[in-house]
Design goal:
Layout: H1 3-26, H2 31-53, H3 63-66
Length: about 70
């Protein structure tokens, strides 16, 4: 999968989790559920940061390039 596709996927997941956290807070949801979503968000943000900072060492052909 291309870096751009991975980045888009992670950003989408982070946004969905942020919306879920906001909804739970607005509805006075369980603190455990909110905390779990916050931990998941942090994990995804870490993955996104690593993806953004990663130097590509390999000349790998992505799935998207195969279709071209």
């Amino acid at each position: 999968m291309s870096v751009e596709r991975q980045r888009h996927f992670l950003e989408k997941q982070i946004n969905e989790i942020m919306q879920g956290i906001a909804e739970l807070k607005a509805e006075n949801g369980e603190r455990f559920s909110i905390r779990q979503l916050e931990l998941t968000q942090k994990t995804l943000e870490t993955k996104l940061e690593k993806l953004n900072n990663a130097d590509r060492k390999d000349d790998v052909i992505t799935f998207e390039q195969l279709r071209s």
